[in-house]
Amino acid sequence: MAEAELKKRKKLTQMRLASGGILAIFTLAFFISKYYQGRYPAAVIILAISEAAMVGGLADWFAVTALFRHPLGLPIPHTALIPKEKNNIGKNLGSYVQQNFLTAEVLIEKIREFNAAGTISKWMTDTEKVSKMTDQVIKYVPEILDKLSDDDINRFIKSNILIGLDNLELNKLFAEILKTITANNRHQEILNEGIRIVNNLMHENEQKMRELFSDRFSWFLQFIKADEYFFNKLLGAISAYLQELNDDKNHRHRKEFNNYMNELIVKLETSDEYKQKVNSIKNSISNNEVLINYINNIWSDLKKMIIEDIKKPNSNIKYQIEKTINLIGKNLLNDSAIRNKLNSGIENAAVEVISSNSDKIVRLISDKVESWSAKDFSESLELEVGSDLQYIRINGTLVGALVGAAIYFISHLY
After folding, report:
1. Which end of the chain is more exposed for a tag (fewer CB within 10 A), N or C?
2. What b/e string do you get for 73-82 counting C-beta neighbours within 10 Å, with b at 16 or more?
3. Spatial distance between the Cα atoms of 285 and 279, rounded to a whole number of angstroms
């Protein structure tokens, strides 16, 4: 039995004893005053008060008891109401929840009052709360990872990568990549960057190139400086060509580069020969032992890296998670338009989901109540509210005593 249930049962027992004790006191007072009413005038007053208190206490005892069972086990009509009406109570409870808690108006009001996007974004900017939450989450990661089968994960990764690669039409993928590159002459920008890189490499390594070039000449040609002459001519011609190609956007070789790219895209899309060439490259990649070994070790390496990092006091994974959450929270706080859209989306989704499933919620409540036995349902309900209902018995006894006193004094005034 749960600790909470034990506390409720203890409280219910205490309240029953309290209400019964008060009734017993007035009952005892009734018999004592009845015995002494001929000797002491005050006994008559106590008799009237205690008699009315007994009537009030017994009446409310009957009313409270009749909700949950037959008083004294007697099958009196209209008693044991809750066990008898258990199924109707379940249906009415479900309908009450649906009509008063699951309507669009109520949901919208509560959701707007909560301001989900604003509340969440403020929480996300609270570094202390985010840090505590992250600590609570990542401390379970090593345990979760250890429970996963390494062989199963490796097999899953390997099969999906290789299957994905096998099903991939690389020729069409390359064609789409080239289309993206050639859109708006981006390939010419790449060519410009290539020219710049080649030009810089030539000038940065000019001395080394000069020495390599000179080594190819005989000592006599080196003696008459022929090697330097030819190298300067060659370097100057290459530099001039690169400069010309860079400056002239309509250069012949630029047009040839355009034509080559367009032809290559068409061939990749339509040519069986190019498709076979690309597939040959794909097959060589799929069967590459280095790649297969790498794939086999992906999970093990990744798992080891994650566990080792998480165990560090200055875990980079934890830091990156917290940093990302804080950044998203700050951006949300500074962007009211996004917050409004998120709140609107949450509101619409919540209303749609709950409204469309409200009948299921009603059935869940009523079916659950129907599944309980009448005795279990009555006892569980009494356990929840029975302690408070005992106050009705106490109040009935005390109010009865006050009414008895009032009637006695009023009747003796006239």
Report:
1. C
2. eeeeeebbeb
3. 10
